[in-house]
Amino acid sequence: MQLEERNSVATAVPNGTEAARDQIDRILASNTFHASDVLRRLLRFLADKTFAGTADDLKEYSVGLDALGKPATYDPRQDAAVRLHASRLRQKLDDYYRNEGKSDSLIVELPKGRFKIAWHPRGVETLPVVSVPLAPVVIPQPVDPPAPPAIVPDTLKIWRNAAIGVTAIALVLAFVMVWSLARTPKTLPGTRAVSGSTPELDELWRPFLSPAHHLIIAFVNPLFVRLQRKGGVDVVFRTSGNNSWEDVLASSELPALKKALGSDVATPTFNLVERSNLISTFALSQFFARRREDVSLARADEVSWQQLSDNDVIVFGPFMIDGGPSALPVKTPLILEKTGIRNLQPAAGEPEVYPDSADHSPGNGEALELVSMMPGPLGRTTVVTFSSHNKWGVIGGVQSLTDPAFAKVIVEKLRAPSGKMPSYFQLVLRMKYRDGTLTHISYVTHRALAMSQSSVETGGTK
Predict the structure, then answer these.
(1) Which residue from 371, 370, 387, 368 is spatially nearest to 430, judged by alpha carbons?
(2) Pairwise pLDDT comparison (168 vs 434), residue with the higher score
(3) C-beta neighbour count of 186 within 10 angstroms
(4) How far apart are CA 27 and CA 309, in angstroms?
(5) CA nearest to 227, candidates 201, 251, 194
(6) What gap in Å lies between CA 336 and CA 358, rounded to an integer?
(7) Residues 6 or more apart from 421 whose CB is under 8 A from it?
(8) How many CA atoms lie within 13 A of 327 on its CB side?
(9) Which tens digits make up the pLDDT trace of 62-79?
(10) Does residue 296 register a pLDDT over 70?
């Protein structure tokens, strides 16, 4: 059944439009959409056009201009912002119905390849009636059966013995298979038996192997600036430290580049992803794809506090929610700063700062990586962040914690003398790289974390 056919029938129910209007308002006011002004604006625009009956006439160009605020020079062939945000809107709607809207009676969707909003009652699948022409019935004329071929008794005996042998082999194989299944170790409910998995890997990632919460891998999609050139190729650039459009407008680089390129139009774009985030996202997606089915991707700056409360989340890069790690129910003694990783509780012989400058050689050198496994806002979920001044630090952190041999080293370091593994911890790793390739990963230090007493008293426990 095609999605368009189902939606065309579902939206024809009595009072369907009014119910859909109420549902759109409910979705736009939800916590899931709270942190994304762009997606709220896009959903409202497409919904209004759908209710007005003009959504079928929408084109990618007009959506870019009217919904996303693109300039008149916007070219959908060079800028995929509309397609990107439409895809993110579909994912956001899925996130809403998986969490806040799991009890809503009306499902709102944006079919792929269309800008017309569709909706249907939850649990109701309206199948279109399709008339299929029947082929004419042909009654075969009776035909005398062919005479059976003559079978030599010795040949018959050979085939009979072969059949008995094949049957015996099949029974043996069936017995072996049942016996093997009976001896296969049982896995945790909702998880899979994975080739290459080890007890240390399972111990290290245990909070994320439980099916109790959905898993979100949040990648950093940094701000780039697109300079549009008349009659020429657009230039896209990024300056370190410019993480908002206000920072870009206040920078000295933008006027200089505008003058040098003869460009008057500058627009923000989030269509580019740094290689470290791309490689790390792919590596962790593969790692968890073999262990669980409910994994989704999201931009780190669009993950809300509600999502952190309802889902397990892995974030590449600094913590991008307002308040940062300090707003979580745990105190983090290791903090990434411009000069390195500050150690607020140095043990004997440890420095107060592990130096690691943000000015790195692009191909050769060293980098530090800070991995923090922390409780979510209410203590029910788990949040992991991979933070570094250098892209090789992020890649190395992911590779080391998904490598069976290195995971064994880390678990031995984290495990307390009593043998207990901490639920939450921070870990500092050192990466060496040459010609853009990781050559060595080593352990530096770690800290076991404990939830604050106030969080435990309010019910935020694992």
Answers:
(1) 368
(2) 434
(3) 6
(4) 18
(5) 251
(6) 10
(7) 203, 206, 411, 414, 415
(8) 11
(9) 998 888 888 888 888 777
(10) yes
**Cβ atoms of 364 and 435 closer than 8 Å:** yes
Question: How many Cβ atoms sit within 10 Å of the Cβ of residue 125?
Answer: 10
310 CB burial (10 A radius; 0-12, 13-18, 19+): buried
Residues, the chain? 462
- What does the pLDDT average to over 6-10? 37
CA distance 35 to 429: 32
Residue ranges per domain, the chain?
Answer: 3-121, 201-219+275-457, 225-269
Alpha-carbon span 41 to 47, nearest angstrom: 10
Single-letter amino acid code for the residue at 167:
T
Do residues 91 and 73 lie in contact, with contact meaning Cβ atoms separated by under 8 Å?
A: no
Interval 339-390: pLDDT, tens: 899 999 998 989 999 998 766 666 678 889 999 999 988 888 999 999 888 7
Measured distance CA(152)–CA(421) in Å, rounded:
74
The two tokens of residue 258 are 């505008």
Q: At what angle do helices 391-401 and 404-414 cross, to 10 degrees?
A: 90
Q: Would you state the structure tokens that stand for residue 89, as one six-digit string? A: 């809107």
Check: CB of residue 232 under 8 Å from CB of residue 184.
Answer: no
